[in-house]
Amino acid sequence: MNTTYSIDLSLQPTTFDLWHVCLAGTVALLAITLIVLLLVMVISLARRSKTAVAPEVTTVTVAAEPIVQVVEKIVEVERIVEVEKIVQAPAPEPIVLKEATPDAALQLLGILQKEARFIDFINEDITQYQDADVGIAARVVHEGCSKALAAHFKFQPVRTESEGTIITLPSGFDASSIRLTGNIIGQAPFSGRLIHRGWQATQINLPKLSQAYNVNIVAAAEVEL
User: Fold this and answer.
1) 121 vs 11, 62, 124, 132, 137, CA distance in Å?
2) Are residues 201 and 144 in the same domain?
């Protein structure tokens, strides 16, 4: 037995059940999704059209090139200035050594020879004499040298402390007036025992010499007539 069913599509539903609700929601979701996709496509096409404009890219490139050149020139100028500073840096002053003239030294030897027979005593071979004889001659030389130095020089000690005193030398002390001896380790300040107070000349009064005076003649030869 064959049964035939026919569907009339012109009929409108008279009831609104769960199935119709799901169908309507699906249609609405698809419609919203389609609208969003269309908006995204439109925005992306608009952005591509702006970035594809050639004059704007050219303007940015042209504006950037001079800035790079200016920066490079500034760096070159700074390097040149640094080189000039290095080249123009003053060289350390050379150490100038003072040449000591022999005139004053020869004049002093002449005074010691005149007052104490100093050169005669130094050049004498004292090994052939007894200690007592040497002592007598040394006394004469000592008295004459003391007289000559007192007449032409004034001396005073470099350090005023008593010998044997423990003293402290600060950093930057005058190495020309103080000589360190013993075990020298590290840097100043140094503490040590004063062995010798030292001497410094405070006044020099050598007699003036004429132009014709020969300072090389420390002691003139003597001829008795």
Assistant:
1) 159, 98, 5, 15, 8
2) yes
